[in-house]
Amino acid sequence: VYFDNATTTQKPRYVIQRVNDVYTQGIANVHRAVNFLADEVTRAFEESRQQVAQFLGMEAREIIFVRNATQTINVVWRALSRKKSLRVLTTTLEHHSNLLPWTAEGQGEFVPWSSRGQNRWPFVSHHALNETGFNDVCCCFKFSWQYSTRSRKLSKSVDLPGLIDASQSIRHERINVRQLAGDYLVFSGHKIYGPSGVGVLYIKREILDSMDPVFLGGSMV
Ligand SMILES: Cc1ncc(COP(=O)(O)O)c(C=O)c1O
């Protein structure tokens, strides 16, 4: 019996079959060619975006596919830190994929949110946040209902952009993004029975519309 689903999941037969079908019946480049096969895979690709959006209660255009959760967090970090140096408020419980980007290049400043786990959360108050003297704080946290309820109150009261790392919780809890405080939400497909190489990044529409692209190129000009 395989017990290490937190690391990655074994793939159901229909996932393997679907990947096999695409590779054996005609592979083409998504959004990059004008032919029958390219139309087919592009349609299938956009359908999966719709399905992910439906699964999480978002709009399809708020979903961006990249390589994995680590890359999604790096994308957000790069987009935010390009404009100004960040003061990042996070917990000491995070995966290193959700810590290292925020502290890279000496740009980010890491404020440990919880040194003893969730019990310290009530002590992070609006007042404490204001006392930091920074107004561009980004909260990054693993998702659970307990976290999200508290963080929602917090981020609403101080108007913080918040990133939710749902990499572990996505398999266990029903997540409706609209009910959460998160402006960004990330997870990896391979932890939820999907193929390797798929990371999901949700960015709230209002933010997305005002963002500059992080990657240039691709698609067709
Ligand atoms: C909470 C959490 N965040 C991020 C990651 C990174 O995921 P990936 O290696 O798919 O980028 C993991 C992987 O174990 C994780 O558990």
Name the shape in a single word: globular
In this entry the ligands are: pyridoxal-5'-phosphate
Helix/strand-derived category reads: alpha/beta
Low-confidence stretches: 117-127
Strand order of the largest sheet: 1-8-7-6-5-2-3
Percent strand? 15-25%
The value of Rg in angstroms is: 19 Å
Report how far the terminal alpha carbons are from each other: 49 Å
Task: Provide a count of the helices.
Answer: 7
- N-to-C SSE string, H for helix and E for strand: HHEHEHEEHEHEEEH
The helix content, as a percent range, equals: 25-40%
- Main sheet overview: 7 strands, mixed
How many strand units? 8
Mean pLDDT: 80
Describe the structure.
There is one protein chain. The protein has helices at 13-25, 36-56, 69-81, 100-103, 126-131, 145-158, 205-210, and strands spanning 63-66, 87-90, 109-112, 115-118, 137-142, 162-165, 184-188, 199-203. It is built from seven helices and eight strands. It is of the alpha/beta class. The protein has a seven-stranded mixed sheet with strand order 1-8-7-6-5-2-3, with helices on both faces. The model is unreliable at 117-127 (pLDDT under 50). The site of pyridoxal-5'-phosphate has 12 residues, from helix 3.
